[in-house]
Amino acid sequence: MFYRCRHTEEEIAECMAMIGDRNSLAAIHRIKGIKEETVMKWLEKASTHVKQFERIVRKKKLSCVQLDAYDLCMA
After folding, report:
1. What 3-state class would DSSP assign to 4?
2. Structure pTM?
3. Which helix (H) or strand (E) holds 8?
């Protein structure tokens, strides 16, 4: 799903977790140094591949609350 991304799957999952924790894209940029546009592209990709992204998230052992937030962000 994130083929040819310059960031690791773990970094992507961390950014998605930050979105789930209601951090803004600007905050993610300040904290992680990843452009807002990049995070938005990841979110768009994740929204079109929900089942595959859910497996990535589960591998990272994020909580159910964070998973629920992902579902809300991707809707």
Report:
1. coil
2. 0.63
3. none
CA distance 67 to 6: 24
**What does the alpha-carbon distance between residue 36 and residue 33 come to, in Å, rounded to a whole number?**
9
Residue with tokens 């079109």: 48
Distances (CA, A) of 2 to 9, 49, 57: 8, 10, 13
For residues 5 and 58, the answer to whether their CB atoms sit within 8 Å is no
> Residue for token digits 């591949």?
49
In tens digits, the chain (75 residues) has pLDDT values of 666 778 888 888 888 888 888 999 999 999 999 999 999 988 888 777 777 667 766 666 555 444 455 444 444
